[in-house]
Every structure is written in structure tokens, then in C-alpha cells.
Amino acid sequence: MEFVATKVVKEEVIRVRVDKDLKDRLKKMCKNKKVTMSEMITFMIENEVESYEFKLKNSDDTEKRIVATEKKLLKLKEKLNSNKKEIGMKSRWRF
Q: What are the pLDDT digits (tens) for 77-90?
């Protein structure tokens, strides 16, 4: 996991209330990773937002692929059933 400081001037502030234990654990993690809590939280938020935006952007494509695959599977199933019927009819008349 690589932390990259952005060159954008950050003017906005988000205040979050957490319990002392969580804050201490975050502080310990950041110290071990040699990053500030602000850098770590910004990194986590950026990742979550990017992940959300990616899923949102690609959900329509995924949905279309699912529908297309289901149609193909239905056609294959129908073809298999018709082949079974043809084979059954042929073998029924053989002696």
C-alpha cells in the first residue's frame, strides 16, 4: 500500500467522532506505516470513493452481460431439450 500525498491544497475539513480505542488503534497503525492519520484517512476515503464510482459506472455493463449470458444459456437449454426429444423419438422406433 503506497501513500501518495496529493499536491492539491486541501481546504475542506471532515470531523468524525470515534471512540478512544479506535483512535488509538488508528494512531498505532499510522505510526507503524510512517504516515499521518490524515494521510491514512484520506487514502482510505479516496479508495472507497473510487471503488464506489467504478461499481456505479460498470454496473450497467455487468447487468447487460448477465442478461445476454442468461439468454444464451436459455437457447442452449432449449437446443439440448430438442436434441433429447429427437434422439428419444428415433430410438423409440428402432427394434
A: 988 888 777 766 66
